[in-house]
Amino acid sequence: MVRGLQERGYASSDPDADDARKLNVILTAAGHAYASAITKVIAGLNRALGAKVTPEQLAAADAVLRMSIEDDRVALSTKRIRPPSHAAQA
Q1: Model pTM?
Q2: pLDDT tens per residue, range 39-81
């Protein structure tokens, strides 16, 4: 993944000075612009979907998607993501 970002000019990487097992990935200006563009598209899609479903439907879909994650590490990381708020989607 990192190599692909580097090849596209979206990131650079440096070995971690304190831990040789780690690789620090730094977004370039182009990487920041791309991330911003993606975030805006996702926000627009979320608003469009949020306008078509009820808060209950949105909460149910969120619960099902979270339960479908089988990887324990990924599942644990979803606990840091706040459930959707219908008001925030509108």
Answers
A1: 0.58
A2: 999 999 988 988 999 989 988 988 888 777 777 777 677 777 7
Q: Is the dihedral angle over the CA atoms 63, 67, 72, 74 positive or is it negative? A: negative
7/42 same-domain check: yes
Pairing state of beta strands 23-27 and 11-15?
antiparallel
One domain, residues 34 and 13: yes
Is 33:7 a contact under the CB 8 Å cutoff? no
Q: Residue 67: what pLDDT?
A: 77
Looking at 1-90, list the stretches that DSSP marks H as alpha helix, in order from N- to C-terminal side: 2-7, 29-50, 55-67, 72-78, 86-89
- The number of distinct structural domains making up the chain is 2
Tell me, yes or no, whether 40 and 58 share the same domain: no
